[in-house]
Amino acid sequence: MGMSGISSVLMYYLKSEFDFNKNQFSEILMMVGVGSIITQMLIFPLVNSLVGERVVLRIALLASITYALLYGLAWASWVPYFGALFRMVYILERPSTNAIVSKASSSSDQGKTQGLVAGAEAIGSFLAPLVMSPLTSWFLSSNAPFNCKGFSLICAAFALVNFLTHFNHVRYRGRIL
Question: Where, if anywhere, are coiled coils annotated (predicted)?
Fold first, then answer.
C-alpha cells in the first residue's frame, strides 16, 4: 500500500510543490524505466545469487523507504531526480517476493499463493489512492495543520517501515516466507 500510495500522488505532488512539467516527469520516468531494466537484468541475478531473495527484498524495501522519505522531505527540485535512483532498486521487490513465495509453497499451491500476493497488491492499489489523494491535497493546501508538503509520502514511508519490521513474521502453512 505504501508504494501504491506514492505512485498515485507523486505527479500531483511534484507539480504542486516544484512546478514540474511534462518534460521533467518524462525524465524521471525514463530514468526509472531504463534503470529498472538494468537493475533487473544485470544486478538482480548477481546480488540474488550472492545473498538470496530475503536480503534482496529487505534491500528493496529499505530503498523504497529512502525513496519515500526523500520525496516527502524534498527541499529542492533536484531531490526527486536523486530519489529516482532508489526507485530503481525498489523494483527488485516483486521478483524477490515472487521467488520467496514460490519457494515457500508446494508446486500444487503456486497459483493460490501467487494469487494471494496479487490480491493483496490489488487491494493496496485500490485503497492507497483513497487515503493518499485527500491527505496529499490537504498538506499541499493552505489549510494544512503544519508545514510539511510531503507528509503523505512520509506516511507511506512509515507504512513501508511497518511492513519491513513485520516481514520476518510472515508465514504460509507454518513456514516462514
Answer: none
